[in-house]
């Protein structure tokens, strides 16, 4: 099995910009996250299981 690197080993975050749009009527939310920082590697991998799924 291939070893999994921790995110902090390849990328050091410096700033988080988070926007959430909450709806009390429909009890749902959506949003956007922007993370800026310093890459410590030429390649950064993100875990994408269920990324973009709707949890409505």
UniProtKB/TrEMBL annotation:
Highest taxon, organism lineage: Bacteria
The keyword Plastid is assigned to this record: no
Keywords for the protein's UniProt record, in alphabetical order: Aminopeptidase, Hydrolase, Protease
Descriptive protein name: Aminopeptidase N
The EC number(s) this enzyme carries: 3.4.11.2
Aminopeptidase N-like N-terminal domain sequence ranges: 12-51
Keyword Manganese on entry: no
Gene Ontology MF: a single term: alanyl aminopeptidase activity
InterPro entries: Aminopeptidase_N-like_N, Aminopeptidase_N-like_N_sf
């Amino acid at each position: 099995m291939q070893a999994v690197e921790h995110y902090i080993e390849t990328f050091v975050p410096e700033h988080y910009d988070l926007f959430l749009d909450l709806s009390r009527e429909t009890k749902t939310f959506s949003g956007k996250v922007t993370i800026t920082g310093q890459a410590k590697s030429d390649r950064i991998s993100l875990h994408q299981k269920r990324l973009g799924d709707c949890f409505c």
